[in-house]
Amino acid sequence: MKFRVKEISNPNIKNRNISVLFVNNQIDIPSLKFLVFESKYGGRNNSIQGRTTHRGKAIEIMELYRHLDDMGITWACAEEYHIEQIKYGMLCWDGYEKVSESKFNYKPIKNNTMNRKLDTWFSFFNYMKKIGYRIKINMTIKKVPKFYYKNKLLSHISNNQNERNYVDSWAIKVRNSPTVYSYNAISKKEYNSFYNELEKIDIVYALIAELMVESGLRISAALEIVKKDFDGLFGYINGGKEDYQRVDIKYIAKGGDIKIATFPIRFLKKLHIKYISREYIRRRTVYVKNNLGSSEINKIFWFTTKGKKINYGNVMYAFKKASNIIGRKEKSITPHWMRHTFATWIVLDFYESQGINIVDVGITPNIQLLKILAKFLGHASEETVLIYIRVAILLTNFGGHYGSNFSPISLESFKKSSSAQYILEEIVKKKLKEEIPKNFDFLSYGLKTGLIIDDRGFSQKIDNNFEVTTSFINKMRNFAEDEFGFYYQEKLFNPLSYAISRGFLESK
């Protein structure tokens, strides 16, 4: 049997396609019903599901069909032990649930990836049963706790303050993979290198990245941009406005609604000079020549050099190739990173404009920042903003995602900033390279290693015995620049804390 996933118009959501499964070139009706339901209610809190997530679900259903077909059975006749056989094969497990790569000619998938597939299949079988299909499988259910946080920002303090319900889960799921924190945003320096490599592959991939990182658009919206969306905007190029000033463009959002995105005039200039004025016309002409009579021409903006429509797979391939070239071989930059990077840069620019050290922000994001992010991203919760603040601190202090330098901060700043506490915890994990005991005293460790400076008694000593001169400050800055090199950040530098941590001065 032949299986493939293809997009068709969503019957329930306007301006939105849906990913469906074709079996032997015919739409599979059972999976279609499930995927239509998921597209409308499969998102967070039963909301509309994102297009990329939805396509992933369709592919996971296709995998289920394909594996069962290899066994000579259909989904309606499958039993739980068939699914367990699939699970063992994907994880490369032997009969004792141990990885045995010698028995397989491929690498195992991660436990979390397996559990995600099992969750999709679990939902599929349950939905089929719910809408009246007769199925053979009898799934073993276990109840697992799920917390509904009354206050997500402080949920870690006490679970007694939160509501806990129990939900059904498939008992054949496996232990989760070890927790790995991801910081899916990049510094401006790394982005410039990434952009240059994308441009060498093809200018369109560099411009797609630039559009997303300058506007916060998702990849689906960036790919659906058409030429007429820019009509009337190019007058701004010579209209007397500054390059950083922003202009609006309409786009189709996650739920199919029409929304407004903004990007700076500098992007408009780059787009016009590097693509629209020459390449777009040439590539569009090639497309028309190869697709005579096609009604799709006015729906396509991004073309390859051979006149073919750029799709998500093309962008992913280009991003992965560029990532490898700049040294990101283990974890490639993906299109969605551009949206996170856009938000993180907004956070950095906002606090810089306010003259606030981002490490000292604390646990409550600025209301004005919340409104700015909500305007550009279409949504923004305090919890989400804290994630962006955390990543911004990492980029600032480390010069990238996985740097090693952490500028010393004061004890009071450390106590107030949950983000600084989190970062110190990550540094300790990297330095010790072993599992951290639950009762580990991060504060004492920070004080002993000079990452945290106890300068509570230092202010009084300065008032009585020490004069902070311009010469002293410049000298400390010179020492810091020599020590940290590229990672030195002028705006975050505290000469007094640095002097104490390096033994130039002593606190009481």
What is the beta-strand fraction? 5-15%
Cross-sheet strand order for the largest sheet:
1-2-3
Q: Kindly state the number of beta strands.
A: 9
End-to-end distance: 78 Å
Low-confidence segments, ≥5 residues, pLDDT <50? Answer: 149-162, 398-407, 457-466, 483-489
Given helix and strand content, the structural type is mainly alpha
Number of helices in the DSSP assignment: 19
What fraction, in percent, of the residue positions are helical? 40-55%
Question: Main beta sheet, described?
Answer: 3 strands, antiparallel
Compute the average pLDDT: 78
Order of helices and strands: EEEHHHHEEHHHEEHHHHHHEHHHEHHH
Shape assignment: globular
Please compute the radius of gyration using only Cα atoms.
27 Å
